Amino acid sequence: MDSPAAAPAAPAAPPTGSVTPPFVSETSSFAHEPPFKPRRNPAKLWTIAAIAFASLIIIGGGALYALGPKNWFENYQMASVDDTPLLIELSEKQDRRTLQDGTEYFAASGTIINPSDTEQSVPSMLVILRDASGRIVYSWKMKAPAKTLAPGARVNFNEAKLDVPRAASQLEVGWADITRE
């Protein structure tokens, strides 16, 4: 007799409310992991730092040039001879030596003369050292040895500096610009 085929039995469903045992986890403790974390590339980090530093310097220089004081570079210019009647007479031999430790020593010396009939105030002096082609290689302001100078009086000055460039071969001494002090 032909009887209808029996339907296969459905698999048994897991019992509801079952709890996963505590020792079973999603990840295996034996799964592959790299033995160490990858290191950072120090050359790349230093390159980034150098680029950032150079950018800051360029931006700062541009800002100083564009927004800085208008006459910041003019502080190292000689004053006009018409500003004071005082004269500067340089001594014949300026003292230049190389010390035992290799440091260059340079001393500028001379005399300040008041040829006028009135007492004059003595401004600061500007000492400029130039190389053989006439470029300024070093300069500094020198305080006057006296605040005022009587009529016809003279006063000597002498000031030394260390670490002047070896290329310096010409000396100029003049008055620092009185209007900028």
UniProtKB/TrEMBL annotation:
What are the alphabetically sorted keywords of the record?
Answer: Membrane, Transmembrane, Transmembrane helix
Compositionally biased intervals (Low complexity)? 1-10
TM ranges are: 45-68
Chain spans, region Disordered:
1-36
Query: What's the protein here called?
Result: Uncharacterized protein
